[in-house]
Amino acid sequence: IPQLYPLEGKEPIVDKPGKGAFYATDLETILVSKRITTLLVMGVTTEVCVHTTVREANDRGYHCIVVSDACASYIDEFHHVGLKMISAQGGIFGSVTTSDEVVKALSSVSLSSSTL
What we know:
The protein is an alpha/beta fold. It contains 4 helices and 3 strands. Helix 2 (46-59) packs parallel to helix 3 (76-91). It is globular, with a radius of gyration of 14 Å.
């Protein structure tokens, strides 16, 4: 889908060889260089790749917000249980929200192109 292609030169592409986005990638270097501490996490599958990325990020001190309707699994029950596990115990690994809530929150913030 061309509308979802990264903006050339402005959005880094992280090609992950494993289940988590931190393993054997330069993601942490990118985040540290940009002073990013909060991550919006989405993808497939909720219970594997999203979970692994959130756990890796949490272990590194990042605050993770998982966008529930921007994640999926091949089994709906796994998706729902995966989201519950992230937000369990008061958000032990992170927070869970919807894309509508993210859009609402971001629409009130002015982002400069230098933050990308």
